[in-house]
Amino acid sequence: MNKLSMSHVYMNYHTLKSETEALKDITFSVSEGEFISIVGPSGCGKSTILNIIAGLLKPSQGDVLIDNKSISYSYLKIGYMFQKDQLFEWLTVWNNVLLGLKIQHKVNKLNINKVKKLLTDYNLWDFKDFYPNQLSGGMRQRVALIRTLALNPEILLLDEPFSALDYQSRLNASDEIYKIIKRENKTAIMVTHDISEAISMSNRVLILSKRPAVIKKEIPIKFSTECNSPLKSREAPEFRLYFNTIWEELDIND
């Protein structure tokens, strides 16, 4: 069953003097519980796709449906993780995680217990009274994800969620956050410039062309050996083949 579908979406940006075509006939669907990544050259419109799904931008043409309903009826089903963790430095981990619930007036015993369980399950309970500047980059990203999960979204949008981290932290954070997303059974769409990250975390990778972006190719990711984490996936024999295929499809050097 399709959790989300984007059908014949076009996006044009207008100024007083010109019109720029950003997206051209973008069509794809995502099954419930699936994790897909979108890769492509810088500036091709990857984040624009996420913003349209989130309802932050209205496409020039086309439809986005969640559970076969317009996103205008479904925006509360979406959680968005940005490039920066967007944590408030003057709030503790506990108060950062509760922030979305407070804004939506959903602080109740049931949700409080859920937040406690998330923090406990993902090794952050002991840090609930810490401030963001006392945490590592990977821990900050976990806090940001738990703040998003506290609102119980069904679809997670991840826009370069690890780009602010150094390489080792990025590997660890992607591994941890992948496991959280899978354990919580969320549907996820991630935009990334990192081909290895896309392959290791995804069921499918969509490759966009230069602007105006079209979907050049869709690569299903399947490993012959069982890989239960992104770090393990990077060791699989097929990993390099997928990497080379995606690299050749990108328009970076055209």
From TrEMBL:
Molecular-function annotations in GO: ATP binding
Keywords: ATP-binding, Nucleotide-binding, Transport
Record-linked InterPro entries: AAA+_ATPase (IPR003593), ABC_transporter-like_ATP-bd (IPR003439), ABC_transporter-like_CS (IPR017871), ABC_transporter_ATP-bind (IPR050166), P-loop_NTPase (IPR027417)
Parts forming coiled coils: none
Domain ABC transporter: 4-235
PANTHER family: ABC TRANSPORTER ATP-BINDING PROTEIN, TAURINE IMPORT ATP-BINDING PROTEIN-RELATED
Protein name (database record): ABC transporter ATP-binding protein
Origin organism lineage: Bacteria, Bacillati, Bacillota, Clostridia, Eubacteriales
